[in-house]
Amino acid sequence: MNVHVEKDPTTGFEKVILKEPRGSSAQVLLYGGQVTSWKNERGEELLFLSSKAIYKSPKAVRGGIPVCFPQFGGGSQGSLEQHGFARNRLWRIVESSVPLPGNNDAAPVTSINSSNKAIVELLLTPTEDDQKIWPHNFELRLRVALSIGGDLTMTAKVKNIDSKPFNFTFALHTYLSVADITEVRVEGLETLDYYDNLDELKRSTEQGDALTFDTEFDRVYLSTPNKIAVIDHKKKRTFILKKDGLPDAVVWNPWERKAKLMADFGDEEYKYMLCVEAAAVEKPISLKPGEEWTGRQELSAVSSSYFSGQLDPRKVVQGSSNEHLPQNQTSIISRFSLRLFAVITLMCSSRNPNIKKF
């Protein structure tokens, strides 16, 4: 496993590079504590990063996985900017799975004992200017881990080190790279309630077997399962997002009209991205002095097999990693896939002890 820090000659920002022996890699900017690259062992980029992204403070970088704190969206925390300030502040390295020098005149980086993951942990604390717009003392830690096999895990911890309680909302604003947005489906959010940001936050219930996309999309799904699948039919690739401590899920694509209104987003780039974000939005998190909250997401990418255009349900159930978050409260398999899976189970259960009978 390899972790090192280098300065990007194009952007001028320092970044942490994580690599694992099979060839997977990830890149984390210290500006924003933002993952801006996640590649599989074939060197294929799995995250979307706009070709027009602006790398200049105080602008947030368009793409990758921005950290939204202490608010997601806007308006809930007074004068705070959209999605909060964590994504355009300079973070510092505090821990790593290999020895690294300290940065920003800070103490030396603490070593993490890990032989099967490349890990870096970053820390954000408020500046005087931050406290003028959000008057609370906190520590926000973000641990980014790349496992053998290429799974990317992000663990966020917020600690209240103030003398009074505070509330916040949070999201990992993940931009996934897809081949064609019109050939993408999301499974795991069917039958759930959501707020529609395109319809004055109207609360509705999802009616389809899966989400598909042919126009602008901006919804916050509530009380979602711990596992969501994003199926890219054209690439024959499935992203599995597992999460814990982040009950909501935001799904967003700006589509053509809004894409043309964003200076840091290409006019046609909406075709090649989809945001699926692990979030805590509906019910703000409340911390008393000394309390700490943890939220976690794990991303994996697997090859998809199809039955009548559906995801191979065995891959959803079994996943692609030996390390699992808590089990789903709700299956992410569509009703069609469940019926098909029952047939497959009857045929295969005697040979495969990992598949349980219904």
TrEMBL record:
<dbReference type="InterPro" id="IPR014718">
    <property type="entry name" value="GH-type_carb-bd"/>
</dbReference>
<dbReference type="GO" id="GO:0047938">
    <property type="term" value="F:glucose-6-phosphate 1-epimerase activity"/>
</dbReference>
<dbReference type="Pfam" id="PF01263">
    <property type="entry name" value="Aldose_epim"/>
</dbReference>
<keyword id="KW-0413">Isomerase</keyword>
<dbReference type="InterPro" id="IPR011013">
    <property type="entry name" value="Gal_mutarotase_sf_dom"/>
</dbReference>
<comment type="similarity">
    <text>Belongs to the glucose-6-phosphate 1-epimerase family.</text>
</comment>
<dbReference type="InterPro" id="IPR025532">
    <property type="entry name" value="G6P_1-epimerase"/>
</dbReference>
<dbReference type="InterPro" id="IPR008183">
    <property type="entry name" value="Aldose_1/G6P_1-epimerase"/>
</dbReference>
<protein>
    <recommendedName>
        <fullName>glucose-6-phosphate 1-epimerase</fullName>
        <ecNumber>5.1.3.15</ecNumber>
    </recommendedName>
</protein>
